[in-house]
Amino acid sequence: MRLFRPFIPSLAMLLLASSGVGAQAVLIDKSEIRFISKQMGVNVEGRFRKWKANVDFRPKDLRKSRAEFEIDLGSIDLASEESETEVMRPRWFDTARFPVATFQSTAMKDLGGDRYEVAGKLTVKGTVRDETIPIEVKKDAAGNSVATGEFTIKRLEFKIGDGQWGDPAVVADEVLIHVRMVLPRAG
Amino acid sequence: MTPIRYTGTARVLHWLAALLIFCGFGLGLFMTGLEIAPDKLRYYAWHKWLGITVFLLAAARLAWRAGHSTPPLPVTMPAWQVRASRFTHAMLYVLMLCIPLSGWIYSSSTGVSVVYLGLVPLPDLVPKDREVAKSLLLLHNSLNYLLAAAVTVHIVAALKHHFVDRDDVLTRMLPGR
Questions:
Q1: Which residues 45-104 of A have a C-beta within 8 angstroms of B?
Q2: Residue A17 exposed, middle or buried by CB count within 10 Å (0-12, 13-18, 19+)
Q3: Pairwise CA distance, residues B151 & B95, whole Å
Q4: Has the ipTM of the complex gone over 0.90?
Q5: Any residues with CB less than 8 A from the CB of B113 and at least 6 apart, and which?
Q6: Is the dihedral of CA B11, B52, B102, B24 positive or negative?
């Protein structure tokens, strides 16, 4: 089962990575951006197949740490191809005008006990909102750092699915986003 | 003593299952052709609730059969017809159990959980997988066409018993005393 399409870094990210600013190449195949929405009160799983990440995580120097994500909204994985086509349309993501969603960290905070808080700006469909994502960072058996975090966004604040789809009884306003990023062992 | 008619319980369960099967089948045919819209999601939810109810009714009817003997078939019936009747009934029961299950597994494979009547969350039976989902949908549809065939045989046979053979095979399942 192929979970992710090959990662194609943008030119800017290649420059960033080669300029030695310390960005760690996220292990895309081990990482994921999933979400759970509720339809008719029922959990519906989904994920994004294609995204880019530029992460420089320094637990001992959080001020210099940063995390940037660019999510290809057209790569969404939903229940059916029909739903995937629907969410590209203007009343949902409007991918013709807004092909990507981005997150740019603005600050990170150490909460103690492997837990951190990442504040940043989430931009979807031309709307920018401040989000705070609580994460937990653990080492896996291979010595990689595994950061997991969950946060909830309100889709209607980003005008995702308005008009006839605005009724939260059919598609809930809250969408739970689950992020798992695996960073290779330093050095 | 062997009964000559089905009990009230058996008849209620039979006609309720018949009604729900017709509604679920019709809704299934109708909803799949719709453009995606909030109503379509509502119909899918109702279709799933109907299916789970049919499953529960079938289980209740099997439990009833375990505790009761069914009225005997007319002695005038040829042996092949008795065999055909047993086979069709067995198939109807198997399909009443398997079709809702296949729909439930299909729903799980698309990443959509099933919550019976919007109240009782059912576990996801398989992980989300697009290819598996395609096969399960084909299975769900095929089983339904098999059911349509079995129900057609069931109805035609019941009418033949009533109007051609003029026996009590249909009337013993009809409402009223």
A1: 45-46, 77-80, 82-83, 86
A2: middle
A3: 10
A4: no
A5: A42, A43, A44, B107, B121, B122, B124
A6: positive
Sole residue written with tokens 């029961």: B93
The CATH number of the domain covering residues in A25-183: 2.40.128.110
> Would the CB atoms of B41 and A170 count as touching at under 8 Å?
yes
Q: What pTM was computed for the model? A: 0.82
- For chain A, the domains span 25-183
Nearest in space to B95 (alpha carbons), one of B56, B150, B53, B132:
B150
Contact A170 B42 (CB under 8 A): yes
**pLDDT tens by residue, A25-71:** 899 999 999 999 999 889 999 999 999 999 999 988 999 999 999 99
Q: What are phi and psi of B9, to 5 degrees?
A: -60, -50
Rounded to 10°, the helix B8-32/B38-67 angle is 150
**What distances in angstroms separate CA B95 from CA A124, B21, B46, B92, B123, one per listed residue?**
46, 11, 19, 5, 21
Say which residues have a Cβ less than 8 Å from residue B118's Cβ, sequence separation at least 6.
A40, A41, A42, B45, B49
Quick one: tokens of A32?
Answer: 């994921």
End-to-end distance of chain A based on CA atoms, in angstroms? 31
Q: Which residues of A touch B112 (CB under 8 A)?
A: 39, 42-45, 79
A44–B contact, CB cutoff 8 A: yes
Please name every residue paired with A52 in a beta bridge, in sequence order, or none if there are none: A70
Could you write out the three-class secondary structure of A17-70?
HHCCCCCECCCHHHCEEEEEEEECCEEEEEEECCEEEEEECCCCCHHHCEEEEE
